[in-house]
Amino acid sequence: MKPGQQLTLKIDHKADYGYFLTDGETAVLLHQSEITEDIEGREEVDVFLYVDHEDRLAATMRKPIISAEQYGWVEVVDAVSGMGVFVDVGLSKDALVATEHLPPYESVWPQKGDRLYCMLKITGHGRMFAKPAPEDKISELFTEASPGLMNKELTGTIYRLIASGSFMISEAGIRGFIHPSERKEEPRLGENLTARVIKVKDDGSVNLSLLPRKQDALSVDAEQILTYMRTRNGAMPFWDKSDPEDIKERFNMSKAAFKRALGHLMKQDKVYQEEGWTYEKK
């Protein structure tokens, strides 16, 4: 018997803390906490073998939701710097997604509650690893987008990050791509989010944007500027001739967006400019 096997074993005898099972040569413990249904009076029981937290071969009646042959969505339960993230595979012990299968920057690693589409690998020593699906495997989930999705919103999960952008699969299986110019910050791998369709492509995939529509962005940007000014008693050392890099660093918006929002506030008679500063009207 070895970790990762799904076996039917005979019940050898009952103990205070569970049952000992055997294949005729080796005995293994099925702890009370790993029993999912009444097995009193049975001669055999179907179990999955794993290595418990004390490094002992053990049996469980729980079945992992993924395997070496079966990919599936698993939830992230913890992230450990320098090691990777742990995912719930349906057992009392979690599986590790190692750093080699994660982005190089931990800031975009999955967080608790995020989801990854993975398979399960169990070593001869019983260590459990989950490996995210390659593109050819996750593509089996893809469905084609219809032209009617243009300007509609899609909710889905980020499943791949590359230098040129982020890939998302929607709840309905539509593949979407988010270019860096269509976001303010890079999404996490495994993050669930809602994005707007800005192009439906001939191959059935879509291009997505995480930026608000211009009319909505104007309102959001203007509110951000006002909020910042109010933390400074209604004044800021920025105006429509400020350096673009200074604006980007302070507000995380382009100079064009900043000028539009500032112009909007001036038209509403909420602010005025003077000698390189902007002031809120009282």
TrEMBL record:
<dbReference type="Pfam" id="PF17783">
    <property type="entry name" value="WHD_CvfB"/>
</dbReference>
<dbReference type="InterPro" id="IPR003029">
    <property type="entry name" value="S1_domain"/>
</dbReference>
<dbReference type="Pfam" id="PF21543">
    <property type="entry name" value="CvfB_2nd"/>
</dbReference>
<dbReference type="Pfam" id="PF13509">
    <property type="entry name" value="S1_2"/>
</dbReference>
<feature type="domain" description="S1 motif">
    <location>
        <begin position="151"/>
        <end position="211"/>
    </location>
</feature>
<dbReference type="Pfam" id="PF21191">
    <property type="entry name" value="CvfB_1st"/>
</dbReference>
<dbReference type="InterPro" id="IPR014464">
    <property type="entry name" value="CvfB_fam"/>
</dbReference>
<dbReference type="InterPro" id="IPR036388">
    <property type="entry name" value="WH-like_DNA-bd_sf"/>
</dbReference>
<dbReference type="InterPro" id="IPR039566">
    <property type="entry name" value="CvfB_S1_st"/>
</dbReference>
<dbReference type="InterPro" id="IPR012340">
    <property type="entry name" value="NA-bd_OB-fold"/>
</dbReference>
<dbReference type="InterPro" id="IPR048587">
    <property type="entry name" value="CvfB_S1_3rd"/>
</dbReference>
<dbReference type="InterPro" id="IPR048588">
    <property type="entry name" value="CvfB_S1_2nd"/>
</dbReference>
<protein>
    <recommendedName>
        <fullName>S1 motif domain-containing protein</fullName>
    </recommendedName>
</protein>
<comment type="similarity">
    <text>Belongs to the CvfB family.</text>
</comment>
<dbReference type="InterPro" id="IPR040764">
    <property type="entry name" value="CvfB_WH"/>
</dbReference>
